[in-house]
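Q: What changes when heme C is included in the input?
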Amino acid sequence: MFTPEQYRIGLLLALGMMAVDGLAASPGGPGLGVPATAEDIARRDTSVFPDGSGLPPGQGNVAAGKLLYDSQCAFCHGPHGMGASAEELVGRGKLNSATPDKTLGNYWPYATTVFDFIRRSMPLHKPGSLSDADVYALTAYLLHLNGLIGADTVLNAETLPRIIMPNREGFVRMWPEPTGLR
Ligand code: HEC
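A: The predicted holo structure follows.
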């Protein structure tokens, strides 16, 4: 039988050989995928931050948003942003009730995140299919349905970050508030 010391040295040698073997088999990695081009990265670099940085050019209004919503969103989210199979988007009910219904109007802290979310993930069956102007318009319509902006408001990279959402102070912040938001 091996002594514990011999056993330990044997194990280390075996591990070392496996490591060398692994390196020899794949000097530059597993050889999968293709390098991302600048264009690939730009297409995915769509994050919009609470202060509005990252918002694209373009604009949209409530009326245009309603047309888009009725044809592309209502069948999941309901005719006025509620009452269908997908998340309620509209409503200002209290969050501290027994069965709170979280919506854009009573839960989401930043209007800019609504834009970001719709642009990257909606409609559910075809994410990425909306133009930036479409997303501004849909954001305008949904914020209007929540009673947060008037029917004539036009949203763009300047006006959207100025909207103060009702639940903005309802979160515990892990980082200091970004400058320029107050
Ligand atoms: C096929 C059904 C479907 C369609 C069509 C659809 N959605 Fe959604 N939507 C969902 C589901 C399901 C969720 C919840 C997904 C999740 O939480 O990850 C969601 C979540 C959302 C949210 C976040 C709600 C929240 O409080 O978390 C927004 C905003 C939204 N959708 C907007 C839209 C808009 C605008 C359109 C039209 C362009 C749209 N959706 C079309 C199914 C759909």
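Observations recorded in class: Residues 89 and 103 are 5 Å apart (CA to CA).
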